Amino acid sequence: MMNKIAAFINEDLTRIHSSVASQLSESYGQCFFITGGAGFLGTWLCEWLMYLNRTENAGIKVYVLDREKNRIQERFENELQRGEMVLLNYDVRSLTEIPREVNYIIHAAATPDTSFHASCPIDTMSSVAEGTASMLRAASRLNNLKAILNVSSSAIYANSDMTTLTEDSTSLPFSHSLAAVYPESKRYAEKLCQAARNELRLPIVSIRPFTFCGPYQNLSSPWILNTFINDALNKRPIRIYGDGQTTRGVMYGADFSVWVLVILLHGKSGNVYNVGSDNPVMAYELANYVAKNFSFTPSIMLNTSLAKINDRTYLLPDTYQVKKDLNLTTFTDLELSISRTVTWFTQIYK
Q1: pTM for the full model?
Q2: Which CATH architecture has domain 20-213+251-278+315-336?
Q3: SS3 233
């Protein structure tokens, strides 16, 4: 199975690489430290950096920190044996030292899964707050550090009414609800990074990710596209909780991760960037895209939730700033993104 996975991912990276090759060249010969390295973003970042080693002889080394190590061990067995990657298997809250050779840090050690936030609110908040603080203290002792990228979240924004969200859009108002534990902790982590930039003179950029799809996601996560694919895989009708007018922009994992690398390498310290697709698509349209990628064409059902819900939320990033500053674009359109995602779950990662 590992050969199939490697070939599939290689197709995506090769398709995109020529468009960003010059921007990625500054990663050559550098050492990276990735927290949350076995997650969706972290695994894609490892794929990109090891791809550069294979195709460009880039001489990159990557330290991967994560409590869950199986995915990294299985996928990158050869790279680990050669020493191109080093796996650190412990909680980011326990981080006290970062290897002195590290030049770039990507701090992505938190799950955006809302079901986890609801069931483990203390762990959610402490892993973000304490983990970020531990990372910053350790980073402050590095002599060769060039940049830190902090992965924040679009969850910190207040709900919008059919308008795209800029980096200056209104933040979520303070809430005592347990549902706010993740956005509150991410908002605190952003401020902590800002404080560290001023007090410790650390070079930091933050990103606010939106909605994504592709290999290495967990289909059990409670996100719209994942639930649609899960229904179809199990030969059920695709169930939409409301009237299908929830609106999102969906970006493919290969695009997401390469944007992150470019922002890390070239973003201006102190800046915050939205990351995601600014192409709006309604839930009903997404369901239709998913359905046509299955030979039996599953039916689509509306208003399947027994509870009364607001299914007309609108979450779409304004990406003008990152495109202007770093000349980035979307490399994988929506139809191909969904097709590749369905292929991954039906033919590759079974």
Answers
A1: 0.95
A2: 3-Layer(aba) Sandwich (3.40)
A3: helix
